[in-house]
Write a structure and sequence with these properties.
Layout: E1 9-18, E2 22-31, E3 36-45, H1 51-62, E4 69-73, E5 76-77, E6 81-82, H2 85-92, E7 96-100, H3 108-114, H4 119-128, E8 132-135, E9 141-147, H5 151-160, H6 169-193, H7 205-208, H8 211-219, E10 230-233, E11 239-241, E12 279-281
Parallel strand pairs: 1-4, 4-7
Antiparallel strand pairs: 1-2, 2-3, 5-6, 7-9, 8-9, 10-11, 10-12
Helix pairs in contact: 1-2, 6-8
Bound molecules: zinc ion (ZN).
Zinc ion binds next to loops.
Length: 284
């Protein structure tokens, strides 16, 4: 494909869990010289199958003809919401590159475990095919799935947009945006759905604009830790399962979260456990 040099633009889309029903997507339009000149956002159902439609809607809402590539932070987002990069590329006319950062055995077993009998989801996942490892340089490898673009071009795009580390800038900034939106609305959402007696109540206007106050309220209602507790990394959606631990990294099975040392890092994105606001307990 022909790639214009200076005006090359990427739309990076990343997510952050917001409450237990929806995940927030943020999109950032960035030029190759790292100038940002567009934003968009969307919402997907956690555990749903609406990610592809939402992403297409975000692209449509932007209504721009100057985006050369869509970068997605992974093909499977929001708790096994499987995207269809081929369909996004075909319907938007823009090539799609899904970027992940770690080697993985794949999600098929997890997917079958959490969604028994959901053949549509399994097939959607299988259609994604294998990820292709791409070296950014001698030390940094990322894993891509590309649609509407060849892997040499996809790799070049990722190199062009990566300043340091492994994460292309449009995805890094999109993730920051998504997290900000999450911290504002996620806390409100969670609070309103965890009132005693399962009562549905929307916080007053005052509370809606004061997320820190709400977080304090939340604290007393959070369940205490137990042997089956699972914690999700909001950076990459790795799930720490107490029952399994992380034996590869020296955490034996059945190690309660509070006994996992602060120096432990998320095996997927390497973020420190000690980092505030990154790990959230999953509700069953
Ligand atoms: Zn992580």
């Amino acid at each position: 494909m022909h790639i214009p040099k200076k005006g090359l633009r990427a739309l990076g889309i990343a997510e952050s869990y917001a409450g237990r029903e929806h995940s927030t997507l943020a999109g950032v339009v960035m030029r190759k010289d790292l100038r940002i000149d567009g934003f968009c956002s969307g919402r997907v159902t956690v555990g749903g199958m609406d990610a592809t439609d939402t992403i297409l809607e975000m692209i449509r809402d932007l209504d721009r003809l100057d985006i050369n590539v869509v970068l997605l932070s992974g093909c499977v987002i929001a708790w096994f919401n499987v995207t269809d990069p081929e369909r996004i590329a075909a319907e938007s006319g823009i090539p799609v590159i899904c970027v992940t950062y770690e080697e993985s055995d794949g999600l098929l077993d997890d997917l079958r475990h959490h969604f028994p009998g959901d053949e549509e989801r399994v097939q959607a996942y299988l259609r994604l095919g294998e990820r292709v490892p791409v070296d950014l340089d001698d030390h940094r490898t990322i894993y891509l799935r590309a649609a509407g673009i060849g892997y040499p071009d996809a790799a070049r795009f990722c190199r062009d947009f990566t300043l340091e580390g492994k994460i292309p800038e449009p995805l890094r900034v999109a993730r920051l945006c998504a997290r900000q939106v999450f911290s504002l609305h996620g806390a409100v959402y969670k609070w309103q759905t965890t009132l005693p007696g399962g009562k549905y109540s929307y916080p007053s206007r005052k509370n809606r604009t004061e997320p820190f106050y709400i977080k304090k309220e939340l604290k007393g209602k959070m369940p205490t830790d137990d042997k089956n507790a699972r914690w999700v990394c909001l950076e990459c959606h790795y799930i720490y399962d107490t029952a399994k631990g992380d034996p590869k990294n020296g955490i034996p099975a059945r190690t309660p979260w509070e006994n996992v040392p602060d120096t432990w890092r998320c095996p997927e994105c390497k973020i420190l456990k000690a980092k505030k606001g990154v790990f959230k307990r999953l509700e069953d």
